């Protein structure tokens, strides 16, 4: 996979990655995390404790040039704002909304596919000398062949009657 393609994929899912990471930290930390007295609390937002480690993890989502120029208090304020909004979304039950769950499922699938294809692409590209003229084209063909082989070795049953009834608009 070309570097430009990877960058495009990463750009397309960057927003959802941030959303899922933040949401999961609130959902799991607020509901499941055991509060340890040894951890340093940076802020308490509702019933959620933002620990130093959580704060640093949240900061890692920001570009270094941004987080190094902005005062800590402002960065904390932005994180608190996100946490307050996420807590409100949970209070309203949006985290259990079927549309939201479908969006999370799609994001998860796309992320998993991206990871698999990146892994396989790296394996294939490492087996092709960098000096080879049509290296990317050859790698692309090898990926397609790999996918075709996976499909060939997977049991697939298609219900053509149902397929015919589907009206694609």
Give a description of the structure.
By secondary structure, this protein is mostly helical. The chain folds into two domains: 3-96, no CATH class; 98-165, no CATH class. Helices cover 68% and strands 5% of the residues. It contains seven helices and two strands. It has a two-stranded antiparallel sheet. Strand 1 (41-45) and strand 2 (48-51) form a beta hairpin. Helix 1 packs across helix 4 (72-91). It is flat, with a radius of gyration of 22 Å. The chain starts with a helix and ends with a helix. The relative contact order is 0.09.
Describe the structure using short key phrases.
7 helices, 68% helix, mainly alpha, two-stranded antiparallel ribbon, 5% strand, 2 strands, single chain, 169 residues
Short précis:
The protein is mainly α and 169 residues long.
Sheet with the most strands, sense and barrel status: 2 strands, antiparallel
Instruction: Report the average pLDDT across residues.
Output: 84
Uncertain segments are 4-17
- Number of helical segments? 7
SSE order: HEEHHHHHH
Structural class: mainly alpha
Please give the order of strands in the largest beta sheet: 1-2
Question: What is the CA–CA distance across the termini?
Answer: 32 Å
Gross morphology: flat
Topology, pairings included?
Layout: H1 3-31, E1 41-45, E2 48-51, H2 52-59, H3 64-67, H4 72-91, H5 98-127, H6 135-152, H7 160-165
Antiparallel strand pairs: 1-2
Helix pairs in contact: 1-4, 1-5, 5-6
């Amino acid at each position: 996979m070309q570097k430009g393609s990877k960058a495009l994929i990463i750009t397309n899912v960057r927003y959802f990655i941030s959303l899922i990471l933040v949401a999961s930290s609130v959902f799991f930390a607020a509901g499941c995390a055991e509060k340890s007295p040894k951890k340093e609390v940076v802020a308490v937002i509702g019933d959620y404790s933002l620990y130093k480690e959580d704060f640093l993890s949240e900061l890692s989502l920001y570009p270094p040039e941004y987080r190094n120029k902005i005062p800590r208090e402002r960065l904390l304020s932005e994180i608190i704002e996100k946490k307050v909004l996420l807590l409100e979304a949970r209070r309203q039950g949006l985290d259990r909304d079927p549309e939201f769950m479908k969006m999370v499922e799609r994001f998860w699938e796309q992320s998993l596919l991206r990871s698999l294809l990146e892994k396989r692409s790296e394996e294939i590209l490492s087996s092709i000398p960098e000096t080879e003229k049509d290296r990317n084209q050859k790698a692309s063909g090898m990926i397609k062949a790999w996918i075709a082989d996976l499909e060939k070795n997977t049991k697939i049953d298609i219900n053509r009657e149902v397929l015919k009834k589907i009206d694609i608009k």
